[in-house]
């Protein structure tokens, strides 16, 4: 009867001649591949992307300051690209204000209009004591001025949906192509009464209403955007029985 052989091994992952012999005869498993090449490859790709995107977010004045540092042809190409982006933003900025709507006009002003652009609808509180609602009304005005290619509408919740619970206000509806793409019930999903303009910009980013390199964001870094956008896209819906009016 063959008896198992106990082979002395100090460190099965060490690069030694003894370990190579043991692996060859199957006494210890093959050493797992080193992650170093993958890490180096990821770092190289990160450096490449950082170099390619080094001019992202810079305005025309900042580009002019880089004339001595950057290749003239590359800088001119990028300047032309930025001018085209600014022209596109200007031509698509047709709203630039908050639109009060009435229930009879919802189908026209929201559902049908969403086939042309993103529509953000704010259902406000019927009571003046709702701090979150008052905060969001102010942010809504700033967003409307800043992102004129997105239509921002506003209606009192109880005038839009009879019996809509006050505790569910404010509610944000994001509409596109005739459908409600996302709804946010109160600001608990964001930062409550500390919700800022930037937090709502993250919502716009998350649903695709604006892009990461949109110059209107006017922020040097958005390190938390990728994770935040994923959360916005994939976070749980806050639907309940009262929200069934939108089905």
TrEMBL record:
Biased composition (Basic and acidic residues): 216-240
Domain of life: Eukaryota
Gene3D superfamilies named among the record's database cross-references: Glutaredoxin
Domain Phosducin: residue ranges: 67-214
GO cellular component: cytoplasm
Pfam entry (one): Phosducin
Stated family: Belongs to the phosducin family.
Name of the protein described by the UniProt record: Phosducin domain-containing protein
């Amino acid at each position: 009867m063959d008896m198992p052989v106990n082979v002395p091994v100090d460190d099965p992952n060490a690069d030694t001649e003894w370990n190579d012999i043991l692996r060859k005869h199957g006494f210890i498993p093959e050493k797992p591949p080193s992650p170093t090449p993958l890490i180096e490859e990821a770092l190289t790709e990160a450096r490449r992307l950082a170099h390619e995107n080094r001019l992202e977010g810079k305005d025309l004045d900042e580009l002019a300051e880089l004339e001595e540092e950057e290749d003239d042809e590359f800088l001119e190409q990028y300047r032309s690209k930025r001018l085209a982006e600014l022209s596109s933003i200007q031509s698509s900025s047709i709203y630039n204000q908050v639109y009060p709507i009435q229930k009879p006009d919802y189908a026209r002003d929201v559902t049908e209009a969403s086939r042309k652009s993103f529509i953000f609808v704010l259902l406000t509180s019927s009571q003046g004591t709702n701090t979150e609602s008052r905060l969001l009304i102010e942010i809504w005005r700033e967003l409307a001025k800043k992102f004129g290619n997105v239509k921002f509408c506003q209606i009192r919740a109880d005038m839009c949906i009879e019996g809509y619970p006050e505790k569910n206000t404010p509610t944000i509806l994001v509409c596109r192509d005739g459908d409600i793409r996302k709804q946010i019930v109160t600001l608990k999903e964001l930062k409550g009464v500390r919700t800022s303009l930037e937090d709502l910009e993250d919502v716009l980013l998350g649903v695709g209403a604006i892009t990461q390199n949109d110059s209107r964001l006017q922020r040097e870094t958005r390190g938390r955007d990728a994770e935040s956008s994923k959360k916005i896209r994939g976070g749980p819906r806050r639907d309940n029985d009262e929200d069934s009016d939108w089905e």
